[in-house]
Amino acid sequence: MKATQNSPTGVQVTPADLLRCAALYLRRHGWHQGTYYAPTDTLTPPACAAGAIGIACAGHTVEHFSQLDPDTLADYLTAMAVFVDYLDAFAPVFHLDEDGYLIDEHTSPYSWNDDPARTAKQVITALEDAADEWNRLHTDGGENR
């Protein structure tokens, strides 16, 4: 059963669950910059934040996330949106053009992950904090709102 499927008990996997799974994946298998996955022969390569979210959703590496089935793709895009919302609020990266105009209104999780000053600990913490923020906004006493 993929992480994104509903279990027989009716428990629904939330974006926060997927973000925590991505953080756990990075803790266990390593973090990477520049591409979704580090070039390696292992089935569990080091991954960037987006690659780890993809693995949490699909249960395996995916070369391009448009190859995911519709339900898994929806889960991936939702988890990525939650992560971007968190980065926008708590770790914004602003890119301005030569005239001083904002190029991107949202923080790119790709450029944020690939910042040369970024660390694995920062990425893992951001994924976990984004999950906590989603729970704070969407749950009521442990139950989904």
Give a structural overview:
The chain is mostly helical. The chain has one domain. It starts with 14 loop residues before the first helix and ends with a strand. Strand 1 (139-140) and strand 2 (143-144) form a beta hairpin. Strands 1-2 form a two-stranded antiparallel ribbon. 49% of the residues lie in helices and 3% in strands.
List the helices and strands and how they pair.
Layout: H1 15-29, H2 49-58, H3 70-90, H4 109-114, H5 120-138, E1 139-140, E2 143-144
Antiparallel strand pairs: 1-2
TL;DR?
The longest helix has 21 residues, at 70-90. This protein has helices at 15-29, 49-58, 70-90, 109-114, 120-138; strands at residues 139-140, 143-144. The protein is 49% helix and 3% strand.
Helix-strand pattern, N to C?
A: HHHHHEE
Main sheet, how many strands, which sense, barrel? Answer: 2 strands, antiparallel
What helical percentage do the residues reach? 40-55%
How do the strands line up in the largest sheet? 1-2
pLDDT < 50 stretches: none
Q: For the terminal residues, how far apart are their CA atoms? A: 25 Å
Taken from the alpha-carbon principal axes, the silhouette is globular
Number of helices: 5
Rg (CA only): 16 Å
What is the tally of beta strands?
2
- Helix- and strand-based class? mainly alpha
Number of domains: 1
Strand content: under 5%
**Average pLDDT rating:** 86
